[in-house]
Amino acid sequence: MSVHTQSARMTTTRVRQMKKTGEKITMLTSYDYTLARLVDEAGVDILLVGDSASNIVCGNQNTLPITLDEMIFLTKGVVRAAQHALVVADMPFGSYQVNDDEAVRSAIRVLKESGADAVKLEGGQEIADAIRRMVQAGVPVCGHLGLTPQSVNQFGGYGLRAKEEAEAAKLIADAHALEQAGCFCIVLEKIPAALAERVTREVSCPTIGIGAGAGTDGQVLVLHDMLGLNEGFKPKFLRQFAHLAEPVKQAVGKYVAAVRDSSFPSAEESY
Length: 271
Prior knowledge:
By secondary structure, the protein is α/β, with parallel strands linked by helices. Helices cover 41% and strands 13% of the residues. The chain has helices at 12-21, 33-41, 53-56, 68-81, 100-114, 128-136, 152-155, 165-181, 193-202, 223-226, 245-260; strands at residues 25-29, 46-49, 86-90, 118-120, 141-146, 185-189, 207-210, 218-221. The longest helix is centred in the middle third of the chain and has 17 residues, at 165-181. It is globular and about 65 Å long.
């Protein structure tokens, strides 16, 4: 039987069960229908419509400029493509930080208007009350700790987080706060592998790492990075599973040449 059936659709309950059974969870970012369909058909468990769309899709220097309306628009296409995977949409900067009421309203908008299965928020104890209210309202939430790109201006860059004892202790406390607030999973980004492994042991909800070692319950990468489309981005944690930038440029170059020398379209390609 094909995995791409309604009965096989990934759920937050299934994600939690995967931690209990020791089955690794796979997550990749997706921002459009066409690529999301391919990623879904390849068997990825979770499609994350990340606010990294600000960088990948819009060409911004960081994730801060993208809006809630833009995230909802992008998520709609990914939802239409997903036959198997759980779709999680990032809540962008400014959509949940002002107060808890606005945060809950924003989260409900994402699910109602985009069709996403869940939302993802960056932060720990300071947003735990908002997350608790979202969960109570019926919105599944994925947490995000460690390097939280929406805080780039506060951090002063994208370096390794929680290297020092005090920040590591806070991250552990934050993870427990997110667990208690009802998060069904937590992304751990760019933190020491030993710390990520400890958090994974201590919390009941699954952890999904990016630059956090192999001791988490799953892994996530930005799709365009792992496909080798983003040529200038090669951090230590990134493995490029393909190198598609050059083939794409070569194909476009062949198209340009064929148009210019009038070999395209041929008689067979004309009506």
